[in-house]
Structures are given as structure tokens and as C-alpha cells.
Amino acid sequence: MKKLSLITLCALIVAAPFSQAQISSNTTNSFSYIAGGLQYTSLENKVVSSVYFDSDSYHQKSADSLAGLYFRGSWNFSDNLFAEFRSDVTTREALTLTHGLFGVGYFQPINDAFTLYGLAGLSGSNAERDVLNHGQDGLVKVNREDNGLTGEVGARIRLTNSWSIEPALRVADYNESLQELRLGNNIKVSNYMSIELNAQKRTVAEYDEVNYQMGARYTF
Q1: Is 167 a residue whose pLDDT tops 70?
Q2: Euclidean distance between CA atoms 126 and 141, whole angstroms
Q3: Which tens digit of pLDDT belongs to each residue from 119-141?
Q4: Which of 167, 169, 174, 166 is nearest to 152 (CA)?
Q5: 18, 63, 122, 204: which has the fewest Cβ within 10 Å?
């Protein structure tokens, strides 16, 4: 997933100056952009964030929140087709949660203020925790990784000249199915730049997380 993120990011940066896509004043059909910023993750149930063993005792800490970064890149490479990459990484003490996605989608403008889209691809998630053991093993990494097919349907709705919302529903075929509800808020400050204020909820079996994102988007 890390190699995929670096390759995709480089491709987007290289392709941006040569893109034939026109900068549109209508953010509902602008599917060539790079975005990123800060993310705060709230967990419905506490999870173990660190584990420490020594010769005669066991220590454990739990957490119900993490903080980190998110990144999104999208390229409208032909007509109404686009490719998109997403990644977010949050951490707390020895625990790190990572989610990633790469897919190809199709968007269809309905009118000047409303666009529908669909996306299909691959996604993955990973929960990694360092366990410190003052025995022979030293530092041990324990992780749980899920990968599978994913699909998403969503819309872009322009409410004012500078404010658009982006509701979406995504599912992923992991060992236990993932459901994700997302509501993006895009506030334009120029034809090229906008502010993102996003919220999303992910559910896998009994595990729930709610993410809040604040960042910026550059449209090319």
C-alpha cells in the first residue's frame, strides 16, 4: 500500500501540468485534484494502544481516539472517467491505523448543480501495534490486515457558488464487510483552491470509527 501511494502521487504530480482538463468554476464536475490535511479518528469502543512486558509484569493502555493525516488524488483522464487514490493514517502511542483505496470511476453531470458518480477498485486497511518485550524478542509488531474489492456511489451537490457537499456510500469485501458513509464539504476560495471539511463513519462488524478531516484541495 505504501509503494502504491508513492507511485500514484508521483503520477498525479507529473500528469498535472499536462492535463487537458479545464479548470471549472463548478466543483461538481472537477475530478482532477490533489487534496490532503489533518484527520481525527474517534472510536466507539476503546482499543489497546500499547502493550509492555517486562520480567514480572504486564502493562496495557487503551485509547478511544487517534490523530494523523489524510490524502486524496483524482485524475479525470478521459471524458467522464477518473482514477482516484485515497489514504489516511492515524496513530496513538504504539497503535497505527491505515486505510487506502485505488479505483476507477465514472461521473455523470445531471445539471449545473448536481453530479452523480460511481467508483470500483481495491481497498485495504491495516491495524499495527508495537509490543515491547524486555525479553529475548525485544520489539514485536502485531498487525491485522484486510484487503478486498470495493465499490462506491456518491454525488456532488452545489448549494451556493462557493459551497458544495459530497455525500457517498462505500462498501468493501473484507473478511467481514466494511461499510463507509461519508459527507464531504468543499468551500471554494479560488478556481484552483478550496477548503475541505469532511466527516465519515466506517463500520466493520462490531468495530466503528468516525473520522473528521480538515484540509485543502488543489484542482488542476
Answers
A1: yes
A2: 12
A3: 999 999 998 887 766 555 555 67
A4: 169
A5: 18
Distance CA 191, CA 27 (A): 9
- Rama region for 205: left / alpha / beta (φ>0; ψ in -120 to 50; rest): left
According to DSSP, the β-strands at 81-92 and 178-188 are: unpaired
Specify the pLDDT at position 119.
98
Is 4 in contact with 11 (CB distance < 8 Å)?
no
Q: Pairing mode, if any, of strands 193-204 and 207-219?
A: antiparallel
Q: What are the backbone angles phi and psi of residue 15, rounded to the nearest 5°? A: -75, -25
**Please, are residues 74 and 33 in contact by the beta-carbon 8 Å criterion?**
yes
22 DSSP 8-state letter:
P
Closest to 184 in 3D by CA, of 35, 4, 1, 17: 35
Kindly calculate the radius of gyration of the chain based on its CA atoms and give it in whole angstroms: 19
Report the predicted TM-score, pTM, of the whole model to 2 decimal places.
0.83
pLDDT digits (tens, 9 = 90+) for 6-52: 434 444 433 444 333 344 456 788 999 999 999 999 999 888 887 76
Query: Who contacts 187 (Cβ-Cβ below 8 Å, separation ≥6)?
Result: 162, 163, 194, 195, 196, 197
pLDDT at 147 over 60: yes
CA distances from 171 to 16, 88, 154 (A): 29, 17, 12
* Average pLDDT value for the chain: 85
The helix/strand count (H/E) of the chain reads as 1, 10
pLDDT of amino acid 21: 38
